[in-house]
Structures are given as C-alpha cells and as structure tokens.
Design brief:
By secondary structure, this protein is an alpha+beta fold. It has three helices and four strands.
C-alpha cells in the first residue's frame, strides 16, 4: 500500500495503514510505529505522512513540548504538501542533491 518503514534520525518507524476514525494518522514513540488512516488518498496521504514525520522530527530534535506543537506541525505539513504538489520535480531534485557525495 505504501512505505513499510520510515527512518527519522536514529529511529526506524514501522508504517501501518489502518482504520483511524477522525484521524489522518498518529505516531507512537513507544512502539516506533507511524499509523496512517487507510482511507486516505493522494494529497491527504502525503499530508498525513508529512504531519507524523514532523512530530517524529520534533521528538528526535528534542524540541520543547508546548501546547502549540500540534498547530506548528499541522501548518508545516500542509505547507510542505502544497510545495511538493506545486513543484513536481522538487523531491527528485532533493534526492539527487542528497545522493551527491560531495
């Protein structure tokens, strides 16, 4: 259906696609699992994956837990989703840059 694993920092998260009423997804730090709703398609799937990835980065980088974390993650995830949608070659270009051994 999609990715089986996602590495964030030093942690490898198992990806699960399941029935999650009223949620796009959730990240479970204790079990190293990212759960995404199995009824999402296209842009919503990208958003959900980016959203949970940003929560993972927040944890990995030891950013302070604040009541605004969810708002920040939500806005960045929707923003990144739009940037990737509107710039079809961007991800491939970033992958190329990351693979460059320089």
């Amino acid at each position: 259906m999609g990715l089986e694993h996602l590495k964030i920092g030093h942690t490898r998260y198992r990806m699960e696609y399941k029935d999650l009423p009223a949620l796009y997804g959730q990240i479970r730090f204790d079990t190293r699992c990212i759960e995404l709703a199995d009824d999402l398609a296209g842009e919503e799937t990208a958003y959900g994956m980016l959203h949970e990835t940003l929560h993972g980065i927040w944890e990995y980088r030891s950013m302070p837990a604040r009541p605004r974390e969810e708002r920040v993650v939500t806005e960045f995830a929707w923003g990144l989703t739009a940037v990737f949608r509107d710039n079809p070659g961007l991800l491939a270009h970033l992958e190329h840059l990351l693979a460059d051994p320089r």
